[in-house]
Design goal:
With 211 residues, the protein is of the alpha+beta class. It is built from five helices and nine strands; from the N terminus they run ββαβββααβαββαβ. Strands 2-1-5-3-4 form a five-stranded mixed beta sheet, with helices on one face. It binds FE2/S2 (inorganic) cluster.
Length: 211
């Protein structure tokens, strides 16, 4: 007999070792998330997937499912907290959806729509983040980075190239290119790399292709 827990009152079966997010997805329940990708080990950084497990806040992408857990996800309280996280992500970078090549195909934008985010609420940081256009085929626009580390994980675990890394701590954390010059042109990144396919926002873009 399979083991089960509940999400918002619905009984969810799970297999040993599955996380709450994995079991929920398998059962057709959507839990908002940004840094999770089914092909990669969880990173647990964006916290969009936070649910309440037996009354306590937990990231569902890193919390193992366990028999009898009572999980809340789609509640007004949790969705309001997710909206606040989104608002912080929007003001911390430079996200100008109307002029972004990824508009309409962006997980940050889609999640903001999904959760009914109507305004950024907080003051914008407007950080200075120059783009890297050094590579002949690929553009890097750091202004849109949400530090999900998906490109880091893809380049390391699939492409085996270690092209990207996160550097710094806290508010100073940033995406960097692993080259002495710091320029993408000085890496062996290629158009077929998995790292190019997993960016949920508009940071890693093929040149001469838009909208
Ligand atoms: Fe779980 Fe980002 S998806 S913390």
């Amino acid at each position: 007999m399979s083991q089960t827990f509940t999400i918002d009152g619905r009984v969810i079966p799970f297999a040993e070792g599955q996380t709450i997010l994995q079991a929920a997805s398998a059962a057709g329940i959507f839990i908002p998330h940004l840094c999770h990708h089914p092909d990669f080990k969880p990173h647990g950084s964006c916290k969009l997937c936070t649910v309440k497990v037996n009354g306590r806040h937990m990231a569902s992408c890193t919390t193992q499912a366990a028999r009898g857990q009572v999980v809340e996800s789609n509640t007004d309280e949790l969705n309001a907290e997710r909206r606040t996280l989104l608002q912080m992500l929007f003001v911390e970078g430079n996200h100008f959806c109307p002029s972004c090549e990824k508009s309409g195909d962006c997980k940050l934008q889609a999640t903001a729509y999904e959760l009914g985010m109507m305004s950024p609420h907080f003051d914008h940081f407007y950080p200075s983040r120059p783009v890297d256009a050094s590579h002949p085929e690929i553009l890097l626009d750091f202004n849109r980075c949400i530090l999900c580390s998906l490109c880091v994980r893809a380049s390391r675990d699939v492409d085996r190239k270690y092209v990207f890394a996160l550097s710094g701590r806290g508010i100073g954390t940033k995406l960097v290119v692993n080259a002495e010059s710091g320029r993408l042109a000085d890496t062996d990144v290629g158009l077929e790399d998995k790292a190019l396919q997993v960016c949920p926002v508009g940071v890693i873009l093929r040149k001469r292709r838009g909208f």
